[in-house]
From TrEMBL:
Residues 10-77 form the Flavinylation-associated cytochrome domain. InterPro entries: DUF4405. The chain crosses the membrane at residues 12-34, 54-74, 95-115, 135-155. Keywords: Membrane, Transmembrane, Transmembrane helix. This is Flavinylation-associated cytochrome domain-containing protein. It comes from the Bacteria.
Length: 163
């Protein structure tokens, strides 16, 4: 059973955490990665925070975002099943592409973290991160499309709950 109030809280949570996740990811990419072929300058501070502090913000927002997303996807599980079983894939290409992109970005983000934690090969780790920050840019476009086409949902749900 979908509760509009809970859906609104989850979707607003996704919106807020998505903004922090994208902002911290882009900041690390632009300020620490681009043009730094000799490695990351860990001492450099951007707006008072070091690389590792921005990375912590990115990781925390990504983890909470992922929890909210599990709920979001669970709510729409019947939608996923219907799209696949009733062959509505062509009509819903956008959301399906968004789902696959998210999966790839999550995989290429969490795997290097795991490799780092288990003391694995640094070159594999860096390759994953290189792939991660490139696919993340495409994900960003699909996320923006997904949200902008659902602005009306936020407005009508707010109105419904006010009454
Ligand atoms: C959409 C915009 C995103 C951008 C621009 C972005 C960018 C980045 C960048 C540049 C790094 C490298 C940090 C470094 O070690 O210097 C990074 C790390 C990471 N990202 Fe993202 N990311 C995004 C979304 C995501 C998402 C959706 C997830 C997972 C659900 C994710 C999970 C991670 C994780 C776990 C790390 C840490 C990897 C490690 O410890 O080596 N990111 N991200
Ligand atoms: C910032 C992140 C996101 C926000 C704010 C957001 C918001 C929304 C909203 C407002 C709706 C319509 C209302 C509803 O039924 O809940 C919706 C539907 C949906 N979302 Fe998201 N979403 C986000 C990320 C994602 C991601 C990453 C996926 C896939 C992995 C996804 C999959 C879906 C699906 C399958 C639907 C239902 C079908 C549809 O409306 O086309 N969402 N989302």
């Amino acid at each position: 059973m979908k509760s509009p109030s809970l859906s609104l809280k989850i979707n607003l949570g996704l919106l807020l955490l998505g903004l922090i996740m994208v902002f911290s990811g882009l900041l690390i990419q632009i300020k620490y990665h681009i043009g730094n072929h000799d490695g990351i300058d860990i001492i450099k501070s951007v707006w008072g925070l070091s690389h590792s502090e921005w990375l912590i913000i990115h990781k925390i927002s990504v983890i909470i975002f992922s929890f909210f997303l599990v709920y979001h996807i669970n709510l729409h599980w019947r939608w996923f099943k219907a799209v696949v079983t009733k062959n509505l894939i062509a009509k819903n290409r956008h959301v399906l592409t968004l789902s696959i992109l998210f999966l790839l970005v999550a995989l290429t983000g969490f795997l290097p973290w795991l490799i780092k934690l288990t003391g694995g090969d640094e070159s594999i780790l860096n390759t994953f991160i290189e792939i991660h920050d490139k696919i993340a840019l495409i994900l960003l476009v699909y996320l923006a499309l997904h949200i902008s086409s659902r602005i009306r949902w936020f407005i009508t749900t707010f109105d419904k709950l006010k009454k």
